[in-house]
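Blinded run. Sample ID left blank on purpose so nobody reads anything into the name before looking at the predicted structure. Input follows.
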Amino acid sequence: MATILDNLDEFERKLHELANAQFDSPEYKKILGLKWNRERARIYIVQRAYFVLNRRDCWAYVQGAAPFDVKQIIWDHEKEELMGDPERGLANHYTLGMMEGEAVGLTPDDFLNTPPLPGTAACCYAWIHLAKDRPWLEAIPVSAVLEISNSDEVIKNGAFSRQVGEKMRDDVGIPFTKQPNNSEHIIADVEHGKLLMKVVERHARTEETQAQVLKGAMESWRIERAFKGVLGEAMAACPD
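Blinded prediction complete.
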C-alpha cells in the first residue's frame, strides 16, 4: 500500500508533468516560436500587465476563502508582488513590468490607455470566476500552478520568463539587465512554484481532496493556453 509520502511525491510529479506539457501546446509553441521585435514585445508586455493585475485579484479571492494557515502562506507570497522589497530596492511586480516596458519604448500612459485585448479580458474574467466561485481547495491551484509552470526548477527547457527573456535578448536586443520583470521572476518563481505543495501537504492528503486540486490546476492551465494563444495571434499580426 502506498504511503502518504509516496502519494504526495506522485501527485507533485503529476503537476510537474502537466506544467511541462504546457510548453508542448500549439499556443506556447506559437508565441515562443515567433521572431520577436519591438512592437511584438510591446504587445506582450502591456497585455502581461493585465495578467499581473488579475493575479492579485485572484490571489485575494482565494485568500479570503482559505483557512488561516493558508492565508498566511498566500500573504507571504503576495507581499513582494504587491509591495516590492525595500531592502533589495525592488519595486512591486506591476511596476517591474512597466520598467521593463521602457526598454521597448512604452510609457506609463501606454499601460493606462491601452485596453486589454478581448481574449485577455475573457481569460482574466475566467480566472476570476474560478478563484471567486470555486471551493478554496479547487481555487488555490488556479493561481498557484501558474507559478509552477514558470519555475526554472520544474520546466525542463527553462521557465516561460526565462524563454521570453531570451527572446527579448536575442531577437530584440534587450539585455537581461534591462528586463527587471523577467529577471526577477526567473528567480522568484522557483520558490513560488513550491507554494501549492505546501498547501497540499497540509490540506489535500486524500484522493478526493487531491482531485479537487488537480481539477483547479487543469482548468487554470487550459485558460493559460488560451491566453498564450491570444498573445501569439496578436503578436503574429505585427509585421516581422
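Unblinding after everyone has recorded impressions. The domain at 4-236 is CATH 1.20.910.10 (Heme Oxygenase; Chain A).
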